[in-house]
Structures are given as structure tokens and as C-alpha cells.
User: Which sequence fits this backbone?
């Protein structure tokens, strides 16, 4: 089990595994096959992570929002350049970008499920973590 040797675990590792089971199953059944079906490349993974990193929020300033939009635009332009470098035509680029961004709601769903599961483990004192990584904002 993933949680078996963790120092943060304060209850039975099997219990924690059951809490996270549905989120992991969703990831395995929906996100991973999508990534395989589109033959996701490392460059695309980095671009997607950059898009998540530079996500806007209601809690940020106008200046930060503008910077986030600028960086996201740069990521998309760089991704487009990468696709051209590997020989894709405009239609192929459109399909790749569309398929890549169709992953976004699936990943957001996994993050939400993991956040909820982490909140449950915290509520029932199943893990000794002050603020789990996945408790942050999406």
C-alpha cells in the first residue's frame, strides 16, 4: 500500500486507501486512458502544468490576472511552435490542442476528489498533516 510506510499516517493504511480509492479509480479510468489515447508528450504535460500553475482566481489582483493571462498565452504560442517543429499542420495542431485541453476538466475533477478525500482524512485524524498538498486551490 502507498500509505503503509508513511510517517504521517495515524490510522490503518487500508482505511486511508479506501478513502482515496474512488479518486484513484477515476484517475485510472478517465485521465490515464485519455493521455494514452492522445499519446501525450512530455512537452504537452509541461504546457498543461503551466496552464494549471497560471490559473486565475477571484483572489488575485488585476496585475496578477494580467500576468497570468500573458503567461498562458505564451504557453499556448510555445506549444503551437512545438507542434510546427514536429511537423503538424494547422488542422493537426488544432486537434492536438483540443484533445490536450479536454483533459482539463478530468484533471480538475481528480483534484477536487483528492481535496475532499484529504479533508476527510484530516477531519477524522487519519493522517498527521497540517495542510496536505492537494488542499490548495485548483
Assistant:
Amino acid at each position: 500500500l502507498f500509505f503503509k510506510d508513511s510517517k504521517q499516517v495515524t490510522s490503518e493504511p487500508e482505511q486511508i486507501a479506501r478513502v482515496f480509492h474512488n479518486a484513484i479509480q477515476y484517475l485510472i479510468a478517465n485521465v490515464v486512458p485519455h493521455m494514452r489515447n492522445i499519446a501525450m508528450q512530455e512537452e504537452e504535460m509541461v504546457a498543461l502544468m503551466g496552464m494549471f500553475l497560471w490559473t486565475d482566481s477571484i483572489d488575485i489582483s488585476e496585475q496578477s490576472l494580467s500576468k497570468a493571462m500573458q503567461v498562458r498565452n505564451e504557453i499556448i504560442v510555445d506549444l503551437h511552435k512545438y507542434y510546427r517543429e514536429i511537423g503538424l499542420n494547422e488542422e493537426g495542431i488544432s486537434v492536438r490542442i483540443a484533445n490536450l485541453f479536454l483533459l482539463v476538466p478530468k484533471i480538475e475533477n481528480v483534484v477536487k476528489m483528492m481535496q475532499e478525500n484529504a479533508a476527510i482524512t484530516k477531519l477524522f485524524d487519519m493522517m498527521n498533516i497540517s495542510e496536505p498538498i492537494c488542499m490548495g486551490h485548483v
Notes: The radius of gyration is 18 Å. Helices lie at 13-37, 42-53, 62-85, 90-101, 103-123. Residues 47 and 75 are 6 Å apart (CA to CA). The first helix runs from residue 13 to 37.
